Amino acid sequence: MKLSRRTRIAAAVAGAASFALIAAGCSSSGSGGGSSSDPITLTVTTFGTMGFDKLYSQYEKEHPNITIKATNIDTGDNALTDWQTKQAAGSGLPDVQAVEEGWLSKVMQVSDQFTDLKSYGANDIKDRWVDWKLKQATDKNGRIIGYGTDIGPEGLCYNGKLFAAAGLPSDRESVAKLFGGENASWDDFFKVGEQYHAATGKPWYDQSGFIWNAMVNQQDEGYYTKDGKLNIKDNSDLKALWSKLADGAAAGLSSNQTQWDWGKGKAFTDGSFATFVCPGWMLGVVQGQVKAGGGDAATGWDFANVFPGGAANWGGSFLTVPTQSKHPKEAAALAAWLTTAKSQVQTFQAAGTFPSVTAAQTDAGVTGESDLTKFFNNAPVGQILGERAKGVVAQYKGPDDSVIQSQVFGPSVQQLDSGKADGDQAWDNAMKLLDQLVVNK
Known about the structure:
Mean pLDDT is 91; it is low at 1-34. By secondary structure, the protein is an alpha+beta fold. Helix 19 runs antiparallel to helix 20 (423-437). Helix content is 42%, strand content 11%. The two termini are 23 Å apart.
C-alpha cells in the first residue's frame, strides 16, 4: 500500500497512457527566459500522472538548442529507490529530478546535494506558490531546493449510476449532503456504505489502503510529530481510526482490489465498488482506468465536493536540480517554466493535477470545462478542488513515511481486506513490522 501522492499512479493508468514525465529545458532564470548558446540535452526523471507530456515539445520549440530526454518511472516507490541508488553512487541522477512529498524528508537529509534554486532566480518567483508548498521545499539553512508542481486536496469520486440503483441520492449536491456536507465524518461514510451493501450485496470502496491513507493525512500530525519523532504506537487517534477501518472491511465494504491495478481497470466499469477517494491527480487515474477497462463517461463516475473527516491532502511533488547536473542553470530554468501558472493550468487539464501556484487555481482553464469535467458528468472539477483545498495544511512527512505507508501498514491493510486478520491482529502485525523496518527516534 504505497500511497504518498503519485507514488503509484503509473501502474494505475494501466496501458491507457504512459503518464507524465517532466521535461528538462533551459533558460537563464526563474522566469524561464534565455537559451543555451550550445546545443545541450537535459535529462529528467519523473513518475506518475504529472501531465507534462505536451509541454516537452513546446519547451523545445521555444528553446531550439535544448533537447529533452525524459524518463518516467512507473511508481513513486520505484522512483524513490532509483533516486536513492544513484544518490548513494554519486552519479546517474538527471538534470531535473521529481521528488514526491512522501520522501521529501529523505531528500532534505542530503539537501546540500541539490542546487539552491535561489542562485537561479527562486527569490524572484517565490510568491507564486501557496506558502506551505514553498516552505516544504526550503531546507533548514533557507535553501530552496524544489519548485512545487501540484497539491492533492481530496474530494469523493462516486458512481452515480450505482448510487441510484441502490436507492441513494446520485446528484452531486445531494451526495455531499448524504455524507454530512461540511461536517462529513468517517462514521457517516461507513454508515452509508453499510446501507449500500445491504441494498446491493456489493462492496462500497475499492480497498482499505487509500481510506487509511486519507485518515492519516487528515491528522495534524501523522506518522511523525512535527519535531520528527515517530507518532504511531501510542497514538490513540490512529488506533481509533484503524478500528473503524477494520470494522468496515469486516462488514464487506472493501472490494479488496489490488492497488494501482483494479483488474486492469475492469473494477471501475463492472460495479465492483461505488466510491473512491480522489485527490486531484487521481481523477486522471480514474479516467485512465475506466478507459483501460473498456468504459467511458457513460460508466457513471462523478466527483462530489465532500470528503469524510474534512480537509485532506494526498501528495504533491517538486522539481529539483541535483548538484550532479552539468547544466544547473538550464535545468533550474526548465523547472521554473514547468511550474508557471500557465504550465500548471495545462498540466491540470491533462491530468487533474491541482496547481500549487495560486494564480493558476482560479484560472478559467482550471475552473472551467475540460476533458476531465466532461468525463465526470460535467462536474466543475477545478472549482470543487479549490473548495477542497481550503483548510489544507501540509503535514510533516518523516524520512520513513513512505516506508511506513507501503511496507508497515500495507501488509496489514491487505490482511484486513482479505479477512486473514481482525483489527487488533493486523495492528499488532504492523507494529512488529515497524520495529523491524523503521529506526525509532
